[in-house]
Amino acid sequence: xxxxxxxxxxxxxxxxxxxxxxxxxxxxxxxxxxxxxxxxxxxxxxxxxxxxxxxxxxxxxxxxxxxxxxxxxxxxxxxxxxxxxxxxxxxxxxxxxxxxxxxxxxxxxxxxxxxxxxxxxxxxxxxxxxxxxxxxxxxxxxxxxxxxxxxxxxxxxxxxxxxxxxxxxxxxxxxxxxxxxxxxxxxxxxxxxxxx
Amino acid sequence: xxxxxxxxxxxxxxxxxxxxxxxxxxxxxxxxxxxxxxxxxxxxxxxxxxxxxxxxxxxxxxxxxxxxxxxxxxxxxxxxxxxxxxxxxxxxxxxxxxxxxxxxxxxxxxxxxxxxxxxxxxxxxxxxxxxxxxxxxxxxxxxxxxxxxxxxxxxxxxxxxxxxxxxxxxxxxxxxxxxxxxxxxxxxxxxxxxxx
DNA sequence: TACGTATGAATGAACG
DNA sequence: CGTTCATTCATACGTA
Lengths: 196, 196
What we know:
The structure is a homodimer.
Chain A lengths: L12 H13 L6 H11 L7 H36 L29 H17 L14 H7 L44
Helix pairs in contact in A: 2-3, 3-4
The structure holds a DNA duplex.
Protein name (chains A, B): WUSCHEL-related homeobox 3B
Subcellular location (chains A, B): Nucleus
Main location (chains A, B): nucleus
C-alpha cells in the first residue's frame, strides 16, 4: 500500500483564496479570536483547524520576509560592490533601496498597506546590519549569555532579590541573526529526530 | 567546516527522552539548581547548555498549555455554535466540494478588528497545568534514576511557597487566548487539489 | 532517477 | 508566561 494519507492539511482553493485575501488585506498575525473566526469561516469550505490558520499565517509571513531579506541583501551586496568599485570616485550617497513612505502607524493598519510597514520594519533592521556590516567573520553569534551561567554559578539561593543584572547596553541593537542566505542550506547538524 | 555555526542546540534522542520523562514526572519550571543538574546529566549525551534546558521547559510547557487552551476554546466555541444553531434552527450548510461558492464570504468583519485585538487581554488568571500521567516507572529508562529521584524529591521538598506539588486542571479557564498551536497529528485524507 | 521548489508542520530562541 | 521570529524538517509536485 502506498504512503498513508497526507496527514497534513491541504487548503482548498477557496480557503487559500480567502487566506490570501486576508493577508493582502493586512492580517499578518491574527490573534486567538481572529484565528477562531477565520477558522470558522474557512471550515465552511473544508476541514480546517485553528493550527492550520495559525501556521499558514506564520509561514506566509516568514517566507514573505525571507524573500524580502534576500532581495535586500542582494541589493546591499550590489551596493557594496559598487562602492568598492567606485571607491576612488568617492561615491557620496548610499541611495536607499526603495523609498517607501515609512510612516503609517495608524490604527487602520489592518485595512491596507501593511506590507510596507513590515517591510520597513525589516528593512531598518537589515539596514543597520548592512551599514554596519563590520567584520562578519565568525558570525557564530555573539551569544555571550552569561545570565544563565551567572545565575547558576555558585550560590543558587543567595540571588539578590531585586535585580536582574541590568542589561549591558548593546553596541548594536541588531541582534544580528546573520542574515545568511539559505541557499547553502548547511544541513550539517541534522538533528532529524524523524520518528516519522 | 565540519560543524556549521548552527549555534542552535539540537537535542539528541536520549536527551529528549530524559527531558520528556522529567516533564511527565511533573517538572515544569526547574529552578537554577535543577537546571544545572539536568544540564550536567544531559551533557553526557551531547552538548547542551543550561539555557537549552531552560528554554526547553519553557517551550514545552507553553505549547502544552496552548493545546489545552485551544481545546477548551474550541469546546466553548462549539457550545456557542450549538446554542446559536438551536436558536436559529437552520440547517447546517453542506460544504460545496468542487465548484466555487456562489459568493465568497468576504472577511470584512475580520478586517477591522484592530481595536478588537486587545479585547481579550484581561481575564485569564488561572492556569491549568495538566499533569496527568505520572512516570510509567521503569518504562524505558535504564539511566540511573538516583539523580532524578533525588532531584525530584528535592523538587517536591523544595516547593516553597504556596503552590501545589502537582497542579490540577482547571475546569474552565476564562481565557480564550491561543488556539494556535496544536500537536495532534491528525491523519486526514490526502488532499488532491492538483489538476493532475 | 535525481534534484529543485513550494509549503505544512515543528521547535529552539527570544521578546514584551 | 504568552507570543512571535527564525530556522529546519518532511513531503508533494514538478522538471531535466
